[in-house]
Every structure is written in structure tokens, then in C-alpha cells.
Design brief:
This protein is an alpha+beta fold. Helices cover about 30% and strands about 15% of the residues. The protein is globular.
Length: about 80
């Protein structure tokens, strides 16, 4: 079981690097009401576009059941009063 978990982690780390590493975020906005409705979602998450045209958006789970929130910290691990987008 531990090896299987490690293999999954390795797979998803590699996949995340393939999609995100080296890209620049070129636009950021909240998902439109129309797009959220098309997804069957009640929540409208942050959507960001990368320099290679890839569109990324946040979901509440890996099955895509609804929009999700993104938390952030600064380079020192600190955050302001509202560390969520």
C-alpha cells in the first residue's frame, strides 16, 4: 500500500510539473456564471490562463463536483487575514 501511494504521488507530481512548470499566468478571473452553470456548479472558482493557452480552475474535489477555493501563503509561509481566493 505504501509503494502504491508513493507511485501515485510520483505520477501526480510529474503530471502537475508537465502542466504548470515554466508557464506564466497571463490572466486571472472568477469563472463566469454561464461557465459555472454549464459545469453544473453552484460555486464560481478562480480561473487562470497560462502562457501556453492552458486554462486552470479549482474544484472542490478530484471528481469535479463543484468549484473550489485556493489558499495561499507568502514565501515565508505567512498569510494575511484573508488567505483564500
Amino acid at each position: 500500500m505504501v509503494k502504491e501511494t508513493k507511485d501515485l504521488e510520483t505520477f501526480w507530481n510529474k503530471r502537475a510539473r508537465q502542466v504548470l512548470l515554466g508557464q506564466t499566468i497571463v490572466s486571472v478571473n472568477y469563472m463566469s456564471e454561464e461557465n459555472a452553470e454549464q459545469m453544473g456548479w453552484y460555486k464560481r472558482p478562480i480561473v487562470f490562463k497560462l502562457s501556453n493557452g492552458t486554462i486552470c480552475y479549482l474544484s472542490c474535489d478530484d471528481e469535479g463536483n463543484d468549484g473550489g477555493a485556493m489558499f495561499f501563503t507568502d514565501k515565508n509561509g505567512k498569510h494575511d487575514e484573508l488567505p483564500v481566493l
